[in-house]
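Input record (one chain):
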Amino acid sequence: MPGRTVLKPLKPLVISGKEVAPLVEGGKGIAVSNGESSGAWAATGGVGTFSGVNADSYDENGKLIPVIYQGRTRRDRHEELLAYAIQGGIAQARIAHDMAGGEGRIHMNVLWEMAGAERVLDGVLTGARGLIHGVTCGAGMPYRIAEISADYGVYYYPIVSSARAFRALWKRAYHKFPQWLGGVVYEDPWRAGGHNGLSNSEDPQKPEDPRPRIVELRKMMNGLGLDHVPIVMAGGVWFLRDWEDWIEDPDIAPVAFQFGTRPLLTQESPISKEWKRRLLDLEEGDVYLNKYSPTGFYSSAVHNVFMNELKERSGRQIAFAEEPVGELSEEFQIGLRGRRIYLAPADRKRAEKWMSEDFTEGMRTPDSTVIFVTQEKSRQIRTDQSECMGCLSQCQFSNWAQNELGTTGRRPDPRSYCIQKTLQDIAHGETVDEQLMFAGHNAYKFREDPFYSNGFIPTVKELVDQLHTGN
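The corresponding structure, as predicted from the sequence alone:
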């Protein structure tokens, strides 16, 4: 499709030791950014990024190896999960390397709050030595990403949402390994898909202009002698024509642009046809920030059946006490054993109403509240909690923690969900409306952008060529 040229052409930048186009594929969780999508992106001369979060692996015949856990305990399953993750990361790195054909750069994306992040990085970078040029890492404060990357001669790219976050990382660890800092990814905490880096002082309902935040980051980086290190703008980037003033802006440049949502809708993208069709139907507002994730972070996902059930589940929530105290004076019985709790009079009426609507099971939360769900949902929640495989460093939903005790010490939270289960299910073909569907807030533009008219799904090369036009 023809389109007008960007007024300020995209000049190559040195990224991970090589001059490439400043166009970066954003890494997306379990099996969504894989070797094929990232290898195809790198082949166009940009930076392809595969997800190192429990990536898929294959047998000698190229058949997908199903993720099946045999361990009886969470810790046993945790060890199995890490083995799968390392095997999958190596497999995707090899695929990406072969598809890139020596062009562009290949990066691996990991989450610092995922299970065994350091062990997975060590395992994949050892098994795929020389095939990965950079590591991007967010979801937490990844202090050790610099040291690990430097040990393997690989560049590191911390994902931050403020200058303050990067300053903390630099002072504590990064100043020791400046030569391997390939770039700093600024991820807009209001507009990016997946997990978002909103701080407690920021209002999730009031998005801020990214430019002043980027300018602050660049000023601080320049003061540290990092004026040559690119900032990668991520979250909310769709048409480059909207960002052309940034390309040579001395208050921002050098700058690259990351695309996380748009690569979902390509021929090489591994997501299902149903998922791709759903993206073409999204309307503005269908993606929203929520705080149901078991990580404790805000995240951006499509408002579908899965998200609606979580919203309604939390809506059937009231405060309780084990013994009568103050307003919590009305006795009420929950569970099969008829356990007594005490509610406020008005809340007792609400609870009785919910129970009459078949939400008969009361499940206690860590915050001295109780939610009401159906018997079927209660069984599903308890099963998912008991089958936890320890996919996070700590999980609010199951109360798993990657420590000696194997627990956060808090009650499991039934208001959340098993993130590993739902992301595996949606990545491997389950009904998308009934699973967690991460997306950036601009995903509704698939429907409005004439490039995708009549359901057109481009190859990665066709998409990248279109990006160079500014459209």
